[in-house]
Amino acid sequence: MTYHFLPRLMQAKAAAHYLGVSLSKLRQLDLPCKRDGGNVLYDRRDLDAWADGLPYDGQAPLQVVPAPAKPKQWRTG
């Protein structure tokens, strides 16, 4: 299917194509998916996050560092 825009939610075949992996590889990745009736859909943001987490050739994998917790009260002045 050809789109004139990039859909936010994609079926497995389109999600695999978007990532440049086979359908069987996509299923092995254990990515989160959503269900709408009988449709299994992948969110483009989850696909992008997975791709962003891959290391560049010759580099160590990125480690996700949690954001610091917000203070209970913000003080001004």
Show the helix and strand layout.
Blueprint: E1 9-11, H1 12-19, H2 23-28, E2 34-36, E3 39-43, H3 44-53
Antiparallel strand pairs: 1-3, 2-3
What structural keywords apply?
3-stranded antiparallel sheet; 3 helices; single chain; 77 residues; alpha+beta
How is this structure best described in words?
The protein has a 3-stranded antiparallel sheet. The protein has 77 residues and is an alpha+beta fold. The longest helix has 10 residues, at 44-53. The chain is built from 3 helices and 3 strands.
Short précis:
The chain is of the alpha+beta class and about 80 residues long. The protein is about 30% helix and about 15% strand.
Figure out the total of helices: 3
The termini sit apart by 56 Å
Mean of pLDDT: 84
Please state the structural category. Answer: alpha+beta
For the secondary structure, the number of strands is 3
Percent of residues in helices: 25-40%
| Range of strand content | 5-15%
Strand arrangement within the widest β-sheet reads 1-3-2
Instruction: Using the alpha-carbon principal axes, give the shape.
Output: extended
Low-confidence stretches: none
Helix/strand order: EHHEEH
Rg computed from alpha carbons, rounded to a whole number of angstroms? 17 Å
Give a quick account of the main beta sheet: strands, pairing sense, barrel closure.
Answer: 3 strands, antiparallel
Q: What quaternary form is this?
A: single chain
